[in-house]
Automatic annotation (TrEMBL):
GO terms for biological process: coumarin biosynthetic process; gibberellin biosynthetic process; response to light stimulus; response to molecule of fungal origin. It comes from Solanum tuberosum. This is gibberellin 3beta-dioxygenase. SUPFAM superfamilies: Clavaminate synthase-like. It holds the Pfam family DIOX_N. The gene is LOC102596258. Signal peptide: none annotated. Pathway: Plant hormone biosynthesis; gibberellin biosynthesis; Hormone biosynthesis. Residues 199-302 form the Fe2OG dioxygenase domain. PANTHER family: 2-OXOGLUTARATE (2OG) AND FE(II)-DEPENDENT OXYGENASE SUPERFAMILY PROTEIN-RELATED. Its EC number is 1.14.11.15.
Length: 349
């Protein structure tokens, strides 16, 4: 099952308890030194002709494959509309996520991620790579959250489970569709073949960024790339906070365009698959003094036993220089857990 296999990828790089347990944000009045970063440059870049917002792609557009391929290449991130997921479902997931994060710390600890685990409550996996902690708590779910939900709400866990399972199902279908479009762009003649050669897995990460007394010196999530093929992100309540590092522009906010637009970003494995053509976008999250932001990130990629290698179309085969060697997903995740972004130089030719 997906859970155990992803856990397999992480178990050789266990985190220490200190790096998993978030502080109790509900009882804290000021930012402790452990979470105090040097001043964050959080001036929001305004969008104009010279500095456009990320592409917004209508999934029903006849030229969706070209639009998406172009967005992956130039931005590594885009927003999608007409994706077929109902607003009510986003509201339900947000409601259940907020219900979870509002629980007292001693309840949330009952479902904490184990030191080598992949699911449960805890800090971001990148935590050990930074000397300061992030203003963030997360809850990771793969398939059914039943065991955890029963511990939290022994008599009232059904709704939480139904909503989270339903959302993952919808995200899996949408992710698969997006991958089809993207693979069709990378290898126009062989799309079905390429995608059918992978078995996929997904994980849902509920992110919580509590109100922060000093947002100029705190970070919701430190700069990172996502590891898998792609991430589908929903910013609940249209609360901004996500920024990407854009060449020549610095940190740029991704403004929510509408309640039902979803953000899609390229992850490391798709960067490798595209032979470096699609950037795995470097991003971070800012926090707010008065708004408690919640986001829903769905990570989607091949099963950990899959082998990833750059795809080049047969017509290009002769002239193209391969940038990355073949790598098993499990090996890749293990290397990233040890070395973070340095992982790219370790698999580059
Ligand atoms: O909350 C966000 O806007 C981004 C979340 C994110 O980057 C992640 O979960 O990897
Ligand atoms: Fe991310």
């Amino acid at each position: 099952m997906a859970t155990s296999t992803l856990e397999e990828a992480y178990k050789e790089n266990p985190l220490s308890l200190q790096h998993i347990l978030p502080i109790d944000f509900q009882s804290i009045q000021e930012v402790p030194n452990s979470h105090l970063w040097p001043k964050i440059n959080n001036v929001l870049t305004s969008h104009n002709d010279k500095n456009p917002n990320v592409p917004i792609i209508d999934l029903l557009a006849p030229n969706v494959v070209e639009l998406m391929g172009h967005a992956c290449k130039t931005w590594g991130i885009f927003q999608v509309v007409n994706h077929g997921v109902s607003l009510e479902l986003f509201d339900e997931v947000e409601y259940q996520a907020r219900r979870f994060f509002a629980l007292p710390a001693e309840q949330k600890v009952k479902v904490m991620r184990s030191t080598s685990g992949a699911t449960g409550y805890g800090t971001a996996r990148i935590t050990p790579f930074f000397s300061k902690f992030m203003w963030h708590e997360g809850f990771t779910i793969m398939d059914s959250p039943l065991d955890h939900a029963k511990k939290l709400w022994p008599h009232d866990y059904h709704k939480f489970c139904d909503v989270m399972e339903n959302y993952q199902k919808k995200m899996k279908v949408l992710s698969f569709q997006l991958c089809l479009f993207i693979l069709n762009y990378l290898q126009p003649s062989q799309d079905q073949h390429s995608i059918n050669s992978f078995e996929f897995a997904g994980a849902l990460q509920l992110n919580s960024y509590p109100c922060c007394p000093n947002p100029n010196h705190a970070l919701g999530l430190a700069p990172h790339t996502d590891s898998l093929f792609l991430t589908i992100l929903h910013q609940t309540n249209n609360t901004k906070g996500l920024q990407i590092l854009k060449k020549d522009q610095g940190w740029t906010s991704i403004a929510p365009v509408s309640n039902d637009a979803l953000i899609v970003n390229v992850g490391d494995l798709l960067h490798i698959l595209s032979n470096g053509e699609f950037p795995s976008v470097y991003h971070r999250v800012l926090v707010d003094q008065t708004k408690h932001r919640v986001s829903l990130a769905y990570f989607f990629g091949p099963q950990v036993d899959s082998m990833i290698s750059p795809l080049v179309s047969s017509k290009d085969n002769d002239g193209v220089v391969l940038k990355y060697r073949n790598v098993k997903v499990k090996e890749y995740l293990g290397l990233k857990a040890k070395h973070l972004e340095k992982v790219f130089s370790m698999i580059r030719f």
